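User: I'm new to structure prediction. If I give you an amino acid sequence, what do you actually give back? Let's try with this one:
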Amino acid sequence: MVDLSTRRAVLNWRKSSASQAANECVEVAASGPSVLVRDSHDHAAGVIALASTQWRGLLNAIRNGELDRR
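Assistant: Good question. You get back a string of structure tokens that encode the predicted 3D arrangement of the chain. For your 70 residues, that looks like this:
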């Protein structure tokens, strides 16, 4: 978990343009060498900080369908 209470205003949170009208996705923000990930619907649920290699690994797994429900 990452405490961003003092830096929250400077983060540029982004989410997919395909889900701009809905809050059923995750949002991401760059913070130094990390990529921060949070639930777009429940910001109080917390933030996960991923190193750039972890972020690339997650994106590759998503693109390759490795995380699809079967």
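You can read the tokens as a compact description of the fold. Here is one thing that stands out. The helical segments are 52-63.
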